[in-house]
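Let us practice reading a record.
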Amino acid sequence: MHKIRTYNQISVKGLERLPREGYEVASEIATPDAIMLRSHKLSADDIPASVRAVGRAGAGVNNIPLEDCTKRGIPVFNAPGANANAVKELVLCAMLLGSRGILDGLDYARALDASSDAGEMNKLLEKEKKRFKGNELAGRTLGVVGLGAIGSLVAKTALMMGMKVLGYDPALSVDAAWRLPSEVKKMEHLSALFAKSDFVSLHLPVLDSTRGLINADALRDFKKDAVLLNFSRAEIVDTPSVVDALAAGTIRQYVCDFPHPLTVGVKGVVAMPHIGASTDEAEDNCAIMIAEQLKDFLQNGNITNSVNFPGLSLERSGSARLAITNFNVPKMLGSITNILADADLNVVDMLNKSRGDIAYNLIDLDSVPSSEAIAALSEIEGVINVRVI
């Protein structure tokens, strides 16, 4: 029986992927095998020694102590792309809000005198509506920074709306490149993208290289009256710099999913309460993806969509499987196979991959290893954990 502790409210459709005959899922489990969460801020002290994996039902993992998990040999899974459509739709909404006088018009309409004569109100509206005139998206240029699952969808939708699309992503993967429409013009330099874009949409993870990416220097490269859209992470943008740029007229609007004390009441800021992935469909998709990934890891040792471990999947063969995590140092694989040979354990199949300082091994054996053999493997210097599946 595998035990999974949940934080936050996880979609029932995801939890249904964990059959009751093999899984105990609850918010109060003292010694879980895995943790499943959404936005809960997880500290290292929240992770019991029993935990083998952590699953984040969403894309970002800045609420999880990654470095600590990696040192302890705990893979952290996320659900890239599961909420992509939800975020894409809100970005489209943000572009419309940034190009038309929708919000000001709504405020004006709400303040109308309900006791007025309908005919007189119509005359007033015809007179005043020019105050809320805007521009169409068709023919405008959108710069997309980050061309992963969400960014590529945003780019594709913008093209369908008749926009020109520029893209920038120095870490573009092969899979992402295949998803990207050929009409997207790839830019070599961010400054060139900023200078040519009427809208700039950010779709990046928080890394040392992206934290505060949109700062005063970057904003000076923006096209005058451009609209900045941030539906990725608050930390990508240096908020004081954006407020200064709005005051100076460098950019026209900042539409984001991250309210900040400095932006409250600031003209030109439209801040939503982090609702990019807040749809029933996105929550279902994220929970389903994470449940399936945790299940495959706990039952088979396979790793899909881990942010700190190598991706690795091996069809099962033999009578038992070993899952071994170790530091990525020389001669480790030889030490492991020597102990298996000394224990007269025949390897049927195996796969080994590394990522940074971590290496992960799946080894299928033709017989079940003894407790002595497992102890010997665990005692190898550099081995973090050993699991028999």
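A brief commentary: The chain is about 30% helix and 20% strand.
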